[in-house]
Amino acid sequence: VAINKMDTTKWSEDRFKEIVKETSNFIKKVGFNPKSIPFVPISGFNGDNMIDSSSNCPWYKGWDKETKAGKTSGKTLLDAIDAIEPPHRPTDKPLRLPLQDVYKIGGIGTVPVGRVETGVIKPGMLVTFAPAGVTTEVKSVEMHHEQLTEGLPGDNVGFNVKNVSVKEIRRGNVAGDSKNDPPKAAESFNAQVILMNHPGQVGNGYAPVLDCHTAHIACKFAELLEKIDRRTGKSVEATPKFIK
């Protein structure tokens, strides 16, 4: 947590402590442990404690945090950013790659583009596009105009496929490994929905447009199963007629 504009309070230690206390309470409420989060007093405009430690706050001895990986400490915002642990990439799960676009490139052919969400995509693999039901071989995988031996979760890749026209697959389709749990269409699924702001009430038969990854598709609420208290996550009412 970077606490900015400290120069406007003349680098007041009391104000810093007050903000740390208030923010820690909020962080706890949303399910994080304040001990695992560094608090850094900075002035973005003057560059204090951003890259180099500042002499304007002699009371500030630096931040420390404690996570499963162990204890780390530092002084500046850059130190705190460097100490962020990268998330675990789900390479062990079956391939899921929602298509952002499909291009036709002269001399190469059809090139679908998208981000690998789970699994790994490699040249030579047989991929299946759902719900189009098209299966084909991946000729090559590229990222930033460089050939890759594999695309991992988080990578935005383009891959060249054999004998598939641009008309057969489109944005919103999902590519998966045809030999390892390829993606399938679902007749129905259970969803947990939060109503943020809605003019009317929502009941059975309500038909919204669903955006899932890159897909944009109409669906229908078949039945409302239960109403949940958003603070506790416990069921308040079974099979409600309406929610608002």
Describe it:
The protein has about 240 residues and is mainly beta. It has 3 domains: about 1-85, Rossmann fold; about 95-175, Elongation Factor Tu (Ef-tu), domain 3 (Beta Barrel); about 200-244, Translation factors (Elongation Factor Tu (Ef-tu), domain 3, Beta Barrel), CATH 2.40.30.10. The chain is built from 2 helices and 17 strands. It has helices spanning about 15-30, 75-80, and strands spanning about 1-5, 40, 65, 70-75, 95-105, 110-115, 125-130, 135-145, 145-150, 155-160, 175, 200-205, 210, 215-220, 225-230, 235-240, 240-244. It has a 6-stranded antiparallel beta barrel. The chain has a two-stranded parallel ribbon with strand order 1-2. It has a two-stranded antiparallel ribbon with strand order 3-4. It starts with a strand and ends with a strand. The mean pLDDT is about 90.
